[in-house]
Amino acid sequence: MWILFIICLWNINRAACAVCDIGRFGSRCQYKCHCKNVCQDDGTCVGECADGWFGLQCQYQNVVYFYKTAVSPINAETLFTNNNVCNNINSLNEVSIDWSTTLPFSWMRIKTLNNGALSTLRVSIKESNLESPCTNLRFFQVDAMTFDVYCDCNGGMTTLKLAGDSVASICTILVNGGRNVALFQNTSQTSTYSSESNFGSQKAVDGVVEPTCSDKGCSHTTNDPNRDPHPSWTVIFDQPYAIDKFVIYNRKDDSQFRLIHFSLEAFDKKNTSIFRHKDQSDIYELVYTIVLPAALTVYQVIISQTEFFDSDKRPYVSINEFEAYGECSPGRYGLYCVPCTGHCDSQCRAIDGHCDVCFPGYKGDKCDEACPPGKYGPNCSGTCSQHCFTEYNCDNTNGNCAPCKPGYKGGKCNEGCTFLAFFCLF
Ligand SMILES: [Ca+2]
């Protein structure tokens, strides 16, 4: 108990100290559990993730679950069901999936019965019937049968297509929609209707889409006729995140028209506006999905309204739930988006910190292992000179190892001394 007290007092490990409400976890209790059954204190699920979620602590949205409208051919439907059954469809060499809206593509998780066949996989995206291939496919093994597939695609997709002989071996496809980083972040609004506990700004990031907002449960600006003619709602994240999709849930009970023609603006940490969206439709939506043209590093989002409709005499901003989907900003990784390890020479992979290219002298999945004694340089591929006095003083980054064994000189001890000079200094 005392040890825990000291850990908490000095803030060494906040996750160990936080006591979160049931269904939440994290250093600030900022994450919602997405487990089918029991959720442990650190968010790990006992058993499977809830439908629609996968990956690290089940925090990654599977857009197949939320946005799928059709699969072609129809008998490929089972490939998009996230379960433990792995029945591949032998005759298949092409499969496509349509979305209800334009979505960004980042990566997908594939379960396959034949790892070797994946090299023949082709991925393309379609928008407005214009098909464009995704290039530079990269495969990262998750377990014996599961791979995360990354590739470079231009623009958004209304259809995702997989083709090639390898499709016949695939048994599950999950398509990443990012994780919601807006949950329980700092929020404010220009005014509040009724009371903070009923209609405060936090209600829009509490992870709950309420069936009714009439009593409580949604953010809502004031109806005081003398106040707030230009209402807005603001969220400021604990750190910048790479966001590619915003989702706004409208209230479900009444007055949904209040969001018609709303504006959304995103800012970076320098308070520079980096993305603006103005709703154009005269008909309200129950769920607005706003896709960014590319992932942007966002720190703050403001939703505002200047117009009013129906019987209203003033504009309001009322939000049932706001979500911001994306990843850690470049150079960070993991659930808490900590910096990539110091010896990574490229941006590490956000989900697990894997680094593609290490600085010379380091190796390992996260570039956190120095080369073993006697090795140096990029990928630890250099071998220290056998004329180093000892392999233990060979610099792992550049192979320099002076002092040398008698008879040799140079930074890498690979130059022989001039004749007769047994001990040479130059
Ligand atoms: Ca809510």
Automatic annotation (TrEMBL):
PANTHER family to which the protein is assigned, alphabetical: MULTIPLE EPIDERMAL GROWTH FACTOR-LIKE DOMAINS PROTEIN (PTHR24035), PROTEIN DRAPER (PTHR24035:SF109)
Residues of the EGF-like domain: 28-59, 339-368, 379-414
Keyword field: Signal
SMART domains in alphabetical order: EGF (SM00181)
SUPFAM superfamilies: Galactose-binding domain-like, Growth factor receptor domain
Protein source organism: Biomphalaria glabrata
InterPro entries per UniProt: EGF (IPR000742), Galactose-bd-like_sf (IPR008979), Growth_fac_rcpt_cys_sf (IPR009030), MEGF/SIB (IPR052108)
Protein name from the UniProt record: Uncharacterized protein LOC129926199
Keyword Lyase: no
Signal sequence coordinates: 1-17
Gene name for this UniProt entry: LOC129926199
